[in-house]
Amino acid sequence: MGEVASGGGCCPPMDLFRSEPMQLVQLIIPIESAHRTVSYLGDLGLLQFKDLNAEKSPFQRTYATQIKRCGEMARKLRFFKEQMLKAGVSPKISTAHVDLNIDDLDVKLTDIEAELTEMNANGEKLQRTYNELVEYKLVLQKAGEFFQSAQSRAIEQQREYESRQLRGESMETPLLQDQELLGDSGKPVKLGFLAGLVPRERSQAFERILFRATRGNVFLRQAVVEDPVIDPVSGEKTEKNVFVVFYAGEKAKAKILKICDAFGGDRYPFAEELGKQAQMIKEVSGRLSELKTTIDAGLLHRENLLQAIGAQFEQWNLLVRKEKSIYHTLNMLSLDVTKKCLVAEGWSPIFASKQIQDALERAAIDSNSQVGPAHHHYKCGLSQKGFLLVSIRPAVLLKNIALKVAKYQEANPTVYTIVTFPFLFAVMFGDWGHGICLLLGALYFIIREKKLSSQLDDITEMTFGGRYVIMLMALFSIYTGLIYNEFFSVPFELFGPSAYACRDLSCSDATISGLVKVRRTYPFGVDPVWHGTRSELPFLNSLKMKMSILLGVAQMNLGIIMSYCNALFFRSNVNVWCQFIPQIIFLNALFGYLSLLIIVKWCTGSQADLYHIMIYMFLSPADDLGENQLFVGQKYLQMTLLLLALIAVPWMLLPKPFILKKQHEARHGDESYTALQTTEESLQVESNNDSHGHEEFEFSEVFVHQLIHTIEFVLGAVSNTASYLRLWALSLAHSELSSVFYEKVLLMAWGYNNVIILIVGIIVFIFATVGVLLVMETLSAFLHALRLHWVEFQNKFYEGDGYKFHPFSFALLDEEED
């Protein structure tokens, strides 16, 4: 149980019952060795520093510049990580130690960032030029097809006209054709044109706007580009169309240019002559091949640089985070008046004194310091920090069961909760068939925990985190299921034949009176003959209700005994005599007596009515019990217990406030004049200030607090006992639901003698069992068991107003990283 949480053998075996004894530490460190000292203490990880500069803002502290520099280095490393993720390069974990100074690393990171930024800028510029040339080539090819087809049509028309001239005029030839042709050839119209690409989704709107803006005085031709092209501006793949717009006049051209810009159209220069078009395509193709070669070389160089960064990224990142945490810690230290030393205060476990002293001396030697550090330690007060080193398995099992951090050296409830929590869960979940299913699921998580730990979402992460406690819950459920003799609500004669047999053939539908005992009592758990009879429900109701009361009273007594252990450890006699004794008397005078009556009734087989006995114990304590008497002298015992319970209430309420007032006056009554304290004495007083403070004693406040505590315990003794009846209620509900699913689904489907109905019935039974009994009922029983520990058990002794021990440790940097 005493495995050390931080490996390396630096810590002695721990006691799980209480937190480790702590001490207040004061260190006086020379300036020249401060950095190395804090670094060695971070490697040790056993000292939590106090912030002695809490009144200063982060910018007013001594090492604000260094922290800013570390933050800038961390930003550069994040930039490198983003670039590696984009390039698909993963950082490598290197075991080789690289001795690199933080100043050299800063210079190196700055140079690498400048180089990488320049490479990215050049790469983006080259890629944009390449994408523009790809679009330009598409425009030359598609628009060239327009002009080529138009020229071929014009040649055909010219040839047709010439052939007509050679044949001469005919009667069918229009009279004005020659004049029109001559008139047109005499007045040539010069048309301009623009070519480019426009996004395909905007092409129709682009065409309509052009037509309306120019009143139809344009001629537009479009061609679809089969494959998506990379847009030079956005860098995303986009489906585009090549367009050529013919226009007449500068006004039309200005309108067309504005419309192109509005629709995101990219325009490119284009020559009308076919020869120049072919030459331009050849030049663009040559430039594309050159750019492709240049871009590939740049990408290869960039990948090599990122590979070199990834090989040392983890070491650089760790070094920067260490430096930043060191300067954060140094900012918590106060400068001595001579400004040659730093004064540090903090908390550490007592066993760590020698390790801290060794680290200080080693840092002074390695720093060539002329002055050695000073180390003082003082025993801390009872309400200071708590430190609990536990083995890894209990920490995983019940990480959050305690809900709050224990007060300093307060009894640890999880030591008992490791057993009581899964057991109370199993009382409500008792079915060894369901327990086996739960166990298989827990074992799957445990066996494949290394692989599954990195593949979890938010929902399964909680289940995976509690895999060990689920395993214990399953094992206890199998145990209680064997006691209840239920396997998916079906009883089995696992430990021998039933002790009862039928008198005649008609007893199968009768009550238990139709059975006769022919053998000795069934050796373990509930006799299977009870299942299916008319007396099953009354019998199991009585059994589970009484068992719930016994378990509840036992656990509440354990909580009160734990409060006695705390009082004994803290040497608080007033809590022993005015809290533990009256509480144990009150609880057992009422509900301990009820538990005794249950056990006596089970042992004797009496038919006494326990409800009647408990009610008339308060209403008529002097009356004879008659047939409800279980043993001789029961009436006088009841009167004695009732009197003790009545005495225990003022015993809890009245003495403690007056005793505390008297103790306070005795402790601080003669402190009008005291001698001046030395530095060590004042620090000792400060460390004990929380538990032995000099504030004024408020008797009324203490009395009201004690009154509330007394009323809470008296009423809570009744309500908490009733609260444990949830064990009976949920156990009965689980058993009845399991029985309904088995009888009304599986057996009913079996009775039809139809394969399809049987298969459907089995599927419904499986889904109902998994969804309701193995998921919803598991969650319900888990939450109810959790409540019984948080409220009914822990409120008897557990205050939970402590603080977690957060040592300055490099091993915890991953958990604290933003």
Automatic annotation (TrEMBL):
Lineage of source species: Eukaryota, Viridiplantae, Streptophyta, Embryophyta, Tracheophyta
Classification via InterPro entries: V-ATPase_116kDa_su (IPR002490), V-type_ATPase_116kDa_su_euka (IPR026028)
Annotated organism of origin: Stylosanthes scabra
Family, as annotated: Belongs to the V-ATPase 116 kDa subunit family.
Subcellular localization: Membrane
Function: Essential component of the vacuolar proton pump (V-ATPase), a multimeric enzyme that catalyzes the translocation of protons across the membranes. Required for assembly and activity of the V-ATPase.
Broad class of the protein's primary localization: membrane
Alphabetical list of Pfam families matching this protein: V_ATPase_I (PF01496)
Topology in membrane: Multi-pass membrane protein
Coiled coil ranges: 102-129
UniProt keyword annotations, A-Z: Coiled coil, Hydrogen ion transport, Ion transport, Membrane, Transmembrane, Transmembrane helix, Transport
Ion transport found in the keyword field: yes
Transmembrane parts of this sequence: 423-447, 468-485, 547-569, 581-600, 636-654, 755-776
Protein name (Swiss-Prot/TrEMBL): V-type proton ATPase subunit a
